[in-house]
Design a protein that fits this description.
- The protein is mostly helical.
- Helix 2 packs parallel to helix 5, helix 4 packs antiparallel against helix 5 and helix 6 runs antiparallel to helix 7.
């Protein structure tokens, strides 16, 4: 600032740019430092919301798979009734064929019924895991970085439960069973019975195929766990934390520049006037004993000579005007 007050050409821009650069550096450190923890919490909260949507989609797919269970139970009951009807007149080849089909369907229906109990346990575990993750994030007694580590572990557990849920209902076994039904059965020397049985099995196959066609997977990939929040990541949330960023901007940038400006203006106002050095005499000045004067000073001297004639009174006595005396004194002081 003293150099700027002394009218140094480079001191002003360099000092102003230095203060602005330092202010920007402080702002880039202060603003993220004040908001990095809240921003990390906001990012984790957004991740939990995305993870919740993904888990809901996976559960919806599992619900569709569970719809196959009552269909298989209905097929097993229908085959049991047909077996009992056919064996009423004796347990012959046709009754034996129906009983074989009944046993296969009954075993698959029992397996799928058991899977419903496992599915319910997994659904409860998934729901409890999601609640635990929400509770962990809301626990302000722990630092956000400790909560982050706990959430990463809990998410891995949630993904494991979802994978087990996909396998709870054996959809692949049902697809294999549909292939068996499409293959039909063959009772020796009973073409009429073969046609009747295979027609029934074809109806079962179409029913299961329709149910399987309605099964759709989750196209979206599971959301990746967010990386740690960096300093520059906080500026993506500048709108949400605008008061904090504005405070840091005022303290780190506006205040130093304003203080520098006030000090500079004060020093300029109170600094002593610097007079220019007198012009050095040249050879002509030394020989003639005269010194060159400026054009304005020459004009003032000519005006003085013209005014001297006007100041002679009628009695021949010269009268000096007070204002002109002041003007001459001013010119002499300039010389």
């Amino acid at each position: 600032v003293p150099l700027v007050a002394a009218k140094s050409r480079l001191a002003g821009p360099l000092s102003g740019l230095s203060i602005a650069f330092v202010g920007v550096c402080f702002f880039l450190v202060t603003a993220p430092g004040l908001t990095i923890s809240p921003v990390e919490e906001a990012r984790l909260s957004a991740h939990l919301e995305q993870g919740g949507h993904y888990a809901d989609a996976r559960v919806s797919v599992a619900d569709q798979a569970a719809e196959l269970v009552p269909i298989m139970q209905g097929l097993a009951e229908d085959l049991s009734a047909r077996t009992a009807q056919e064996s009423g007149s004796g347990f012959g080849p046709i009754a034996e064929a129906w009983d074989s089909l009944r046993g296969r369907a009954d075993g698959l229906a029992t397996q799928m019924t058991v899977s419903l109990g496992i599915r319910e346990e997994l659904l409860n575990g998934i729901q409890n895991q999601r609640v635990a993750m929400e509770t962990t994030l809301a626990d302000e007694s722990a630092s956000i970085w400790d909560r982050r580590a706990a959430l990463r572990t809990q998410q891995a557990r949630l993904m494991s439960l979802l994978a087990e849920l996909d396998k709870a209902v054996p959809v692949s076994v049902v697809r294999s069973y549909v292939s068996e039904l499409e293959g039909g059965v063959l009772v020796p020397n009973r073409q009429d019975a073969n046609a009747k049985i295979n027609r029934t099995l074809s109806g079962y196959s179409e029913t299961l195929m329709t149910a399987l066609a309605e099964q759709r997977g989750v196209s979206a990939t599971p959301p990746a766990f967010p990386s740690k929040t960096g300093a520059l990541d906080t500026f993506a949330y500048i709108g949400k934390f605008a008061p904090v960023f504005l405070f840091a901007f005022l303290v780190d940038m506006v205040f130093p520049l304003a203080l520098w400006s006030y000090v500079l203006m004060t020093m300029i106002a109170h600094s002593p006037q610097v007079w220019k050095k007198p012009r050095k005499l040249n050879d002509v000045d030394r020989l003639t004993g005269m010194r060159a004067i400026r054009a304005r000073q020459m004009s003032d001297l000519i005006d003085d000579d013209d005014d001297d004639d006007d100041l002679n009174g009628p009695d021949g006595v010269r009268h000096e005007a007070p204002q002109r005396s002041v003007h001459r004194a001013t010119i002499k002081s300039r010389r």
